[in-house]
Hints:
Elements: H1 2-6, H2 15-21, E1 32-37, E2 58-63, H3 82-103
Parallel strand pairs: 1-2
Amino acid sequence: YQRRVHGGIGRPPYASFVKDYYGGDAIAGTNIVFPNGNIDPWHVLGVTNSTVLVQPTEAAIFIDGTAHCADMYAPNPEKDIPTLVASRERIAAAVNSWLTKGRN
Length: 104
């Protein structure tokens, strides 16, 4: 696995291998938010703003200046950067929209 995906220890992952192995970018789902941060070394394997999304209820959110799962941590008004705050607001708005539509 290490050699096939990473090309050896200490080398960047082979994004094309992983996408081909796991089915590419054609994700068949609805009501999905894909947050990624550019500090996360795995963001090259994630859904980004340049990924063509299939469903209108899918959203790619690229968070400049954050790492993996930063959007999931408890908010910290003293330390959170503006891009993280804005991304959390976008995520909350999307989820709220889905829940509101589900009640109607």
